[in-house]
DNA sequence: GTGAAAGCGCTAACAG
DNA sequence: CTGTTAGCGCTTTCAC
């Protein structure tokens, strides 16, 4: 049972040639239905499976899709990638592919990893995450016409960057969050985000600003920038609330930032609480387990769907179709914090 | 550069035979140092990389290690596996292997996946997680003498179950947690765990009981069982505290349970708060991002080390060494909750 | 429709 | 120490 059963065994038992077996499996329409039927029965009976290494030598296709996992999982936000990865594993399996993992510390190292992989395991395609401005990886892969899809839009101005991608509309997410707060009566809504230059962060700020503009409100003085982190979020929230007694709500670019902001919101501090009591609403981004655990309202990304879409765009790319892309809408998960 | 460079190219440029190149790479000691040096230079110059598919056809080894990822990441506790996976990816890379992902819904489906994989990609070994009583997978792999390692000890009574494994000493973790509470002066310390039968859960309960016994305390009436979950933990904690006014601390089998328990501990409810004010200490297990976020004291598992150890046991198994195993000590991360 | 031959890139076995 | 031969299992010609 664990013995190696080759195409020759199937051919012998079915009373046909090896080639006919191969045809029955790979090019069914070229074989007579009854022959095909018999071959398939024998395949089933013997538990035959194509040896991918042998196939790969002839066709050059390995059935492998490579994806990078970061050396360290940074806790709160790492869960976003992990959910995506789980979804992608399933989607890939349905498309007859398997995921191959690799690590790399930066763009250059990752390109070195591409070279290693292409020479060794020969993955059929790559899935790239965390796209950014001046992404060397996409350029490298495009130059060599290697199939890939990115989860994350190309944050580049170059109009000739043409590759399939899937992304979640971050601006729509923060916009929905802000509109939710507006609908609840909030009028002075601040934003805590990352320093400009990170496409994702800028996009999320944009949605907040758009919602304010839509309500005819002035965003001046209501936006702050900080590296990601709960401590950072807490500091910035404290500063914001102390400096502006009219702020009643905070939209954050991540759950980490929101978590810190929520500390401030939930334990009023005299330092900023000089005015009448304010109940501060807080909304995060990513709907991580932490958000669920502490009752933080957050923007949820449809990661399973994103993974499935990545896979289908990839399948299409492997068939030679021109690249297309997809911007998925996130949705707000409302909890106690807002 | 992206052109396919084979061993023949290297041989031609270096002025030796194909076999010498192969030897220089795989059996360096059998080749004259100067020849070897020249070959390696040409390899570098041409950017040659062995084609694993071709090698696999000859040697039967693919350089792949297969590991299952669960279809759905269950949020809080999923992060444990994910951290392990990240660590394993790195450890595998250092040992010259890559991780291949697959999914399966249960033991039987997973065994079917084994068969698929072995016939197709031919992984050199498997890494199994979530071992349990009557684990069909280990039996199946042992029967076929396929190399594998489990992260999780064999929870079986069978003395002949002999395979390499790595596990974290859960009992030592809850014991340390309980001792920490004892040292802080707590005398009536309850345990919230899972229904008996899940090796991991029973083990964690054992550590708590052991610590109490060591302090000469009676555990009677202090242990509760419930499926995992924050809501479940909350309900059980409420019940425990209402029924026993002397309880001042709760040790939980998971961060999910602890999260729920902490809700009760932090917002005193008249229902159980009939006695004098009690500050209830809570300790969780796994040290997930949620624990860090909400200041929950928790038992931390050394997952990166566990992954590295799994890989080294696997390497040894692939070399034919007899199986050995390892029980790693966890440690307590003390935060505000205890 | 079906079968025979060739060869993908590599390494184990053997000969020099 | 180095070179030659053979063949892993499969699929792509090309005959039949």
TrEMBL record, chains A, B:
One Pfam match: LacI
Keywords for this protein: DNA-binding, Transcription, Transcription regulation
Gene3D superfamilies, alphabetized: 3.40.50.2300, lambda repressor-like DNA-binding domains (1.10.260.40)
A GO MF label: transcription cis-regulatory region binding
InterPro entries: HTH_LacI, LacI/GalR-like_sensor, Lambda_DNA-bd_dom_sf, Peripla_BP_I
CDD domains assigned: HTH_LacI
Ranges for domain HTH lacI-type: 5-59
Keyword match DNA-binding: yes
Keyword DNA-binding among UniProt keywords: yes
Name of the molecule in the record: Alanine racemase
